[in-house]
Amino acid sequence: MADNTRAWMEELLAEMEERRKHIEAGGGPERIKKQHEAGKMTARERIQYLLDEGTFVELQPFAEPTETELMHGIQAPADGVITGYGKIGGRTVFVFSQDFTVLGGSLGKTHGRKIAHAMDMAVKVGAPVIGLNDSAGARIQEGVDSLSGYGEVFYRNAIYSGVVPQISAILGPCAGGAVYSPAITDFVLMSKGNSYMFITGPEVIKSVTREEVTFEQLGGSEVHTAKSGVAHLECEGDQGVLDTIKQLLVYLPQNAREKPPIIENGDPKNRKTPELLDQVHPDPRRPYNMHQVIETIVDEGKFLELHTNFAKNIIVGFAHLGGQSIGIVANNPRYMAGALDINASDKAARFIRTCDSFNIPILTLVDVTGFLPGVAQEHQGIIRHGAKMLYAYAEATVPKITLITRKSYGGAYLAMNSRDMGADVVLAWPTSAVAVMGAEGAANIIYRKEIQSSPDPAATRQAKINEYKKAFDNPYVAAGRGYIDDVIDPAETRRLLIQHLEMLSTKQEERPYKKHGNIPL
Ligand code: HXC
Question: Where do the CoA carboxyltransferase C-terminal domain residues begin and end (predicted)?
């Protein structure tokens, strides 16, 4: 190559490097300092921390903002969002990371298009999409173009739902309609104290309703993980969120056509679980620690719980059983005696559908008195919400195993994945009872006249309760009718669950043609 050609080439390379350096500097040292002082990583630091070292490949770094009258002359490196792909634990993921140092990470048309392109690519190759959100919302200077940018993202969030896993990290502001992109995704994780989500901010609320509220009180991580249920997990800072995303991915497949990876571990498949005999009290009125039960059964006692502080009466989360990723849905007798209410139904139904979308077998642990009685629950639509659970279980075609640990009564017996609702295997411990309702309530209703007219109503009532208990308050009537496959020794629980799960690993279930189902929302 002639010297002058080489020199020309080097000039072009130098220009390219100069441009790239400028882009990589984001909003400049002052704004980066501010970002660090707020306890946040920069958009690029987040990507570096999240992905396996040296695997990040950036897409469209030279993208320019859309020209509008108000954007004239404004610089926006990478248009305020870094997009690309890389690996986590050796598996490909696509990622976008909003750069708050560039126009507050606000979303303009190009910014939205870059995210949409990364999502399109993720679906073409069948890889999860991880969004690192830190944005002041719609870029005001771009007007309707910025709304269009959001539209491109929301549309893909919806049509790619159930195609590849979509995970949203909220690491700063997430305001206005912008919250609807994370809300459509499968998992929302928030950093404690540094992130918030709301449709209208404190100022607007004050002017409309006169309510005074801080950002944190309105839409901080505590609010969304405990009260609204919008977010699945609250983690300590950026690192906490990013570490948890890595953990979460271990339970997920790359896309809906694949199964989750089998994770070999040292926990023997035939390990006995005699501890369960001490962990669960046979008296149905004595609460016990369902988390402890779960940890005793699953591989290495590791359980990644979601929605930990929201609707605590039901527990949902991921674990491994014999190396196989499973989703667990369990009543929690420590809260509201494990009764199902509106929030618990929504929480469980959403989780069941997440598992089914991504080929994750579901283990249901049942100890439930029923749906929560009450005027408020009825008026707020427990019928509509409870129906979601029935629908979600029936719709799910993944392997479904149910283990009844103690009570399973009434509508909640059906809603917790009974045989007739499509459970592939139903097991019960000898401590369990399957009936329309508890013996006390049942005796009061069906023997009311007899009790009232008896010379000793209390003694008659107790005798009738005992009679009912003997007849129904045990697992053997249901087992006798084939609603329960087997009554098992709790010490054999893990071994048997793993055997059933392995048997079900080739399960295929076809459903009649439909465009899509119409789950009650
Ligand atoms: C363009 C914006 C911006 C916006 C902030 N900036 N919001 N630029 N569009 N929406 C710029 C600021 O001018 C500033 O630029 C930089 O981002 C950082 O903003 P600060 O205010 O200095 O930061 P901070 O004090 O941390 O406050 C963050 C904030 C606040 C709370 C998010 O910026 C804010 O309230 N912004 C407006 C939020 C909003 O109303 N967004 C529209 C929501 S409606 P310099 O150059 O000084 O660094 C919406 C509709 C979406 O999003 C609809 C989808 C369907």
Answer: 268-503
